[in-house]
Amino acid sequence: MVPTDETHTLLILSRDSDVYLQILSQAMLPGLSIVTPEDVEKALWFGADCDLLFGEPSLVSKVINYLPMVRWVQSTWAGVEPLFSPDLRRDYILTNARNVYGSLMSEYVFGYLLSIERRILTRWVLQQQVVWDETPSSTLRGKLLGLLGVGTIGDCLAKTAHYFGMSVNGYTRQSESCPYIDRYFHPGDLRDFASGLDYLVCTLPGTPNTSQLIDETFLSYLPQTAWLLNVGRGSVVDESALVAALSQGRLAGAVLDVFMEEPLASGHPLWQTPNTFITAHTAATNYPPDIAGLFIENYKRLVRSEPLLYQVDFNEQY
Amino acid sequence: MVPTDETHTLLILSRDSDVYLQILSQAMLPGLSIVTPEDVEKALWFGADCDLLFGEPSLVSKVINYLPMVRWVQSTWAGVEPLFSPDLRRDYILTNARNVYGSLMSEYVFGYLLSIERRILTRWVLQQQVVWDETPSSTLRGKLLGLLGVGTIGDCLAKTAHYFGMSVNGYTRQSESCPYIDRYFHPGDLRDFASGLDYLVCTLPGTPNTSQLIDETFLSYLPQTAWLLNVGRGSVVDESALVAALSQGRLAGAVLDVFMEEPLASGHPLWQTPNTFITAHTAATNYPPDIAGLFIENYKRLVRSEPLLYQVDFNEQY
Q1: Residue B101 — very low, low, confident or very high, per pLDDT cuts 50/70/90?
Q2: Among A253, A127, A112, which residue's Cα sits nearest to residue B114?
Q3: Which of A103, A236, A279, B194 could hold B221 in an S-S bridge, CB 3.0 to 4.6 Å?
Q4: Distance (Å) from the C-alpha of residue A111 to the closest C-alpha of chain B?
Q5: Cβ–Cβ contacts within 10 Å for residue A203, how many?
Q6: CA distances from A73 to A23, A63, A70 (A)
Q7: Contact call for residues A219 and A251 (beta carbons, < 8 A)
């Protein structure tokens, strides 16, 4: 990298501060000083001179209004909803984490898809009863996956689906750049998009446009044999409609990592609906080396006065 | 295909006779007549004039001695042990099913690998207790897979392992043709091959050379954190040694599709050893369109007087 006279001070505010500090230190980024306060309160003291901020949106949202020097925030998450709160400043560049969750999401989604096809849970239950279960497995090959949202995570899921011999329907507002989508659908085509799907995977962010998109009508478009997987945001799904569809057998099952309210309340019916797998927003937990790599790439761009990757539009909330 | 005056009569002897008959009929193979008797007894009557035989080795072994006209047998299975019985004739060409189980084996193996990494079973058990389980998942990325046997199934598993960002050690007698194996090992290198593995997958056929290869010594080379998966043949594993290793926590767990005796006896300790998944030789059940495709390809070669694919050596028993 070209030497620079420019200096920057970075505040890291993350559960994984230690790991990030280690990786960024080893990267020897020119002109960069780093502070890693233990908690939010100390961040307010030590962060006063910082112009860069790197961390979880839930923590960043607590300090951003009190750190007026900050002009760039790199989120460690894809979802940055906490920073859209109307009382928070928006006069800085916000970049989120993209292109780093694809492989983890792929492991989550295909872990469940293969478990379903291979009857892993059912076979294990039968094993407890010492049953030699010769029921054949089904296969992903030839099946149809629908992707609601085709961003960087959707790209990766579509690629993995193709690897396993599936076809892929993609539903998106505009972009048609993913080579692994066999057919694209757009707003207005929801019924055609959904019909014939074996699996629907929602990767949509939580925005005013996506709220409750998966409602009773949309669920009625899906075949009774289809599974719904939600790894996007809970607000995209009308949970009452989903509970009804699962309870009445109008849907084969659901794998849910995100909910309207998290943690999912202990009395929520989704804990008990048939063929429902609940996970606690753990589908793609941070993989610090990747997220750090994203910061490093963007820092190099900053120093070269190039546009940063994955800038969030505060108006689109994405 | 070039018209031919040659005629052949094929006996199909399979659980999936109807499907095979349909596919082969549609293929309009020149000069081919097909008979599909209902059972072994009828096969002896109707098969007297047949020169070709296509079916399960367990069924073929019951008729092959009584059908002297047969000069080529296409097995629907990869494993053809029933045809090595010393009282059976060997004066015919035996071809087995290869290159058709890779994708199904890949779904089986990676279904279990991802279930383990993503804690799918543990999370489901916790869900029954209404526990919001935020334990992060681990990932296949960066982990080391060892393949004991690198045939066409091993090739496909290695490719899938690479797809998920794993490294692959391959143990083989000779061939080093698979581009997805990072390091090859050969007889004599078992200790080096095994050390550091996260997962060991055995795809070896049951032959005199592979019998009890996975014994107490070999198991002691594996890290305590490693999982063993056997999708080859049960005879490759010393089951007593495996039971001891699992019971004493010297191995993280096992996923077993094949056993010394199948079905696995109801009193066998492997039903109960910790972290053990038992499946009933269902890892790669037949996918008739693929197997039929193999017969079609070989039939075309036969008509053109070209060598058939995947000929079995009766001496090597593979």
Answers
A1: confident
A2: A112
A3: B194
A4: 5
A5: 27
A6: 18, 11, 7
A7: yes
Tell me the three state secondary structure of residue B243. Answer: helix
List CB contacts (< 8 A) between A104 and chain B. 137, 139
Per-residue pLDDT for B3 more than 60? no
Residues of A with CB under 8 A from a CB of B: 103-104, 106-108, 110-112, 114-115, 117-118, 120-121, 123-124, 127, 130, 132-137, 139-141, 160, 163-165, 263-264, 266, 271, 277-282, 285, 287
Q: What is the pLDDT of residue B4?
A: 58
Is pLDDT at A51 greater than 90 in this prediction?
A: yes
Q: What is the value of pTM for the model shown?
A: 0.84
Alpha-carbon distance of B200 to B210, in angstroms, equals 15
Report, as residue numbers or ranges, the catalytic residues of A: 233, 262, 281
Q: What is the pLDDT of residues B251-302, one digit of tens each?
A: 999 999 999 999 999 999 999 999 999 999 999 877 788 899 999 999 999 9
What is the value of ipTM here, to two decimals?
Answer: 0.84
In Å, what is the CA distance from A214 to each residue of A200, A234, A279?
11, 10, 19
Query: Cα-flanking dihedrals φ and ψ of residue B187, to 5°?
Result: -50, 135
Instruction: Give me chain A's average pLDDT, please.
Output: 94
Q: Is B65 helix (H, G, I), strand (E, B) or coil?
A: helix
Better-scored residue on pLDDT, A101 or A202:
A202
Do the Cβ atoms of A137 and B278 come within 8 Å?
no
Could you give the CA distance from residue B126 to residue A278 in angstroms, rounded to a whole number?
Answer: 10
- Considering only CB atoms, A107 lies closest to which of B107, B117, B132, namely B117
Residues of B in contact with A278 (CB under 8 A): 123, 127
* Per-residue pLDDT at A175 exceeds 80: no
CA atoms within 13 A on the CB side of A94: 27
CA pair distance A164, A139, nearest whole angstrom: 9
How many Å lie between the alpha carbon of B130 and the closest alpha carbon of chain A? 6
pLDDT in tens, A63-104: 999 999 999 999 999 889 999 999 999 999 999 998 888 999
Nearest CA in chain B to A164: B103
Beta bridge partners of A278: A256
Q: Is A61 helix (H, G, I), strand (E, B) or coil?
A: helix
The DSSP call for residue A81 is G
Q: Which residues of A touch B140 (CB under 8 A)?
A: 107
Cβ-Cβ contacts under 8 Å for B282 (sequence gap 6 or more)? A133, A134, A135, A136, A137, B257
Q: Give the model's pLDDT for residue B6.
A: 85
Helices B102-117 and B120-128 pack at an angle, to 10 degrees, of 50
> Tell me, what DSSP letter sits at residue A167?
E
3-state class (DSSP) for residue A185: strand
Question: Does residue A73 sit in helix, strand or coil?
Answer: strand
**Amino acid making up residue B157:** L
Strand-pairing partners, residue B93, are B72
DSSP class of residue B113?
Answer: H
Q: Which two tokens stand for residue B209?
A: 């050379």
Strand partners, A230: A202, A256
As annotated, the active-site residues of B are 233, 262, 281
